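User: Sequence in, structure out. Go.
Assistant: Echoing your sequence, followed by the structure tokens.
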Amino acid sequence: MGSSFKSPADTAKACVDIAELKEKSPLGNLILLSFLAGAYIAFGGLLAEVVTGGMAAAGAPPGLVKLIFGAVFPVGLILVVIAGSELFTGNIMYMPFGVLKNKASILGLIRNWVGSWVFNLVGAVFVAYFLAVATGILTADPWAATAMTIAKTKALGGASFIAAGKVTSSLTWTQVFWRAVGCNWLVCLAVYVAIASDDIIGKIVGIWFPIFAFVAIGFEHVVANMFFIPVGIFLGAVTWSQFFINNMIPATLGNIVGGAVFVTCIYWYTYLRGTDKTIPAD
């Protein structure tokens, strides 16, 4: 009877194969699947805001708010991995695997990263406006107050994940960067563990725990913020310039370091370096 999961080394090898497929993907597929990934992550964000709306203002313990917020948010990455789509933060892990094993090119990596980033933004903003704001779901209190607080916390910086209607202190650009490093380290591990599993339930469980962890901790995920902050923009809490300058730039760079360095480079070095024909046992 065969194993229901791959070894860490075989998982790294599978990432190389996925990168090779992404390298060859038609541009139209990249655009459509990236739009879907942005929308799927936004669904998770919308669910998390609806479930926790008003909890902080009602005096719920901050840890409990984070716990519940983190517990429901993973639905987005579950959809990304199982239904199939192009998520920028996951592609940060995949494409360097391909480049390091000569199965993908630098130009292919840039094409994939830029395309997925741009159209993740389109998908997330689509959900933020049409499904969260235009529907009225997040336009009435306590949900509007929660959405505006999260947007301000992420775009302007805040000490708490969800404060009672206000931003209590500012985060520096460097703090956002390092929070983004931690985020995509965990996100890419979630994707890596999902690839390791050969059954649906194993993939869901493997995704859920690391994503729950990064959200509850309060790390910065650039694609999730493509939903959270635009909702606040549409509600008048922050501006587009604050969105891009204060969050998108440091969060993008930090996510790249977290996924490409702490996951791809380390696993490539330990399992794939100099092993074109054979891969060492884990």
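User: And one key feature?
Assistant: Residues 163-168 have pLDDT under 50 and may be disordered.
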